[in-house]
Amino acid sequence: MRPEPTPSPRPQPTGQTGYPEHDETVPHTHPEPGVDPHAPLAAAGRALRVGIGGPVGSGKTALVAALCRAFADELRLGVVTNDIYTTEDADFLRRAGVLDPDRIRAVETGCCPHTAIRDDIGANLDAVDELEETFGALDLVLVESGGDNLTATFSRGLVDRQIFVVDVAGGDKVPRKGGPGVTAADLLVINKTDLAPLVGADLQVMDRDSRARRGDLPTVFLSIVQDRQAGQVADWVRHELAHHRAAQATGVPAGRG
Amino acid sequence: MRAVARLVAHPDGRGGTRLTELAGEPPLLLRRTGHRGPVAEVYVVGAAAGPLAGDDLRLEIEVTTGAAVRVHTVAASVALPGRVGATSRMMVSARVHPGAALHWLPEQTVAAAGCAHLAESRVEVAEGATLTWRDELICGRHAEEPGDAVLHTVVDLAGRPLLRQTLAVGPQAPGWSGPAVLGGAPATGSLLVLHPDRPADPPWVHPGGTAARLPLAGGPATLWTATAPDAHTLRSHLEP
Amino acid sequence: MTPSTLLLLLADGRFPAGAHAHSGGLEAAVGAGRVTDLATLAAFLRGRLATAGLVGAAFAAAAHRAAGQPDRAGLLALLDAELDARTAAEALRRVSRRQGRALLRAGKAVWPTAGFADLPTAGGGPHQPLVLGLLSAAAGLTRPETALTAAYQTVTGAASAGVRLLGLDPYRVQALLVDLAAACDRTAAEADRAAGEPPWRLPAAAAPLADIHAEVHATWEVRLFAS
Ligand SMILES: Nc1nc2c(ncn2[C@@H]2O[C@H](COP(=O)(O)OP(=O)(O)OP(=O)(O)O)[C@@H](O)[C@H]2O)c(=O)[nH]1
Ligand SMILES: [Mg+2]
Question: Coiled-coil ranges per the record (chain C) (predicted)?
């Protein structure tokens, strides 16, 4: 018998996320610019590195931006992108308003996006090192892969966790096709649920198929246009980060949270 | 033919430059033509056409502290075939002392069909000296494929390597006219500018994509490098 | 493992030292419209082998030689300065050091006992040929094998970039490399011989367009290759 699935969020085609929008009427403070609001990490603490992979256009950069928004006042962030990186991309992330463009490093992949994140990870590791050399200790480094196909995954030598982003517009058959990204990523994000009615994608089918493919591994349905901070994904990252820190503190090699 | 010429410059004590040695032999004769401010101006007066394969020409230049010299040649030198199996050599060696200035701005070297030519520059520059060094190579006379020519440049600054480059063209140099080296351009050259108290400017590429300004690693020096369709265009990129 | 297997491992483009992301100047040459097809790719590879290929192979061989010398650190520092003096374009110096850093990362992980502490790293990392020389010495390769590895990589990297950028027939590109094999062997032999000379006399074969292309490439907003 299949083990009891971990609570996997249900499809939310209506866009109800349960996360309040940023409300300026509620009293709160913004951190002083120029003052690092974060408590220093333990010296041994290494940033949690999270890979974000998935097919072209599924919403990886949008998810990076959403997570930057979510963690802006909470974590010391760095981003490495293997995307074909234009100033528009930089502008996009800058406009997302929460990440200093210097904290984004682009890695050229020589037309082999999967090689750069899987077989030959040095340039990505260099980029992570450079971020840490420039900004000191970080809590979280997001590594966006170049848009690839369903077979691309990150090496465990590069990232601690990986998120695979597919979208409903690719068709509700995608989870059924499987591939290492869908079956083995630590988190599967099925994005653009707002488009499901328009493209005739059946979210129930996608949910059923991803459960079948992924066993216990979690899947999140998301619409970034409706949930600008990707609340469930951010929560998952927080949870993984807590595990990562605990593992670092006890010196146990970081495994899956 | 073998010839040696020698030029030694000292300050004249009145803010100008005195040439204490200015000796040559045909076809390598030196003439002082005047001065521009404190800078003494010297021309190398080539006698006949050449050099021919087998010729061995050497020019030694020394500029001591406080002196400044600018050296030109009156005409392009055309490297021509000569004795079978032989090479023509033109070797310029220079020492520039602290606080001295040397500007080596000769006319082009033309590698004629069938030539076998080696042009060698060895320059030792002391800390605090100023140097301008230009080399221009035209690959073949009008509509002609060049023979073998090698331009070899070695510049040390304060005893440390500043620039080493060997540009080879002709039948013995694989791929020389191809897209990795000259891209079919018949003219190429470089201008090295070393100013002790002026930091090199950042890299810049001419909009035509055939010339660039390259700050060097070993000191406050810039190499201008260019390829061009003709000598005139080349020169426009390499005016100091 | 015999040394020849190690030679194949080190020379293999799949050795994780970042080769896949470098086109050896080809992306810029394609962008400038100078390489468009098999014939121009062949000419590009020939010129690159005779210039960057020879210099890189000679410095790799010289570093291999330095590895066993008493004044190893001093020699490596000198080789570093000599290679800088042969690399007029800042963009190319950066690329060489970046590739050196990638190779060093792989080398340290694969040969943890080999020492690299005396490699000069100012300017963003050690020059790639120096790392290659020390690494192949640590792996027990000979000096000629070291030079061959370096020469070989300067053409194979650019050739495979040609397949990816121009959509060329991979069989015909491979045939180009076969045509180039003898020249590659000769270049490696010349580099190995030169490595016996004092550092200032090492080959300095220059290519004006390689410098210019590299600086143009560095200004592109979107690059598929790191060089
Ligand atoms: N309707 C809708 N559009 C979205 C959503 N998420 C992202 N998009 C849009 O999808 C397009 C592609 O998003 P990106 O984030 O650039 O996708 P990507 O995966 O980074 O793309 P590549 O890096 O090119 O592979 C953009 O126009 C986004 O605005 C979503 O939830 N709903
Ligand atoms: Mg993207």
Answer: none
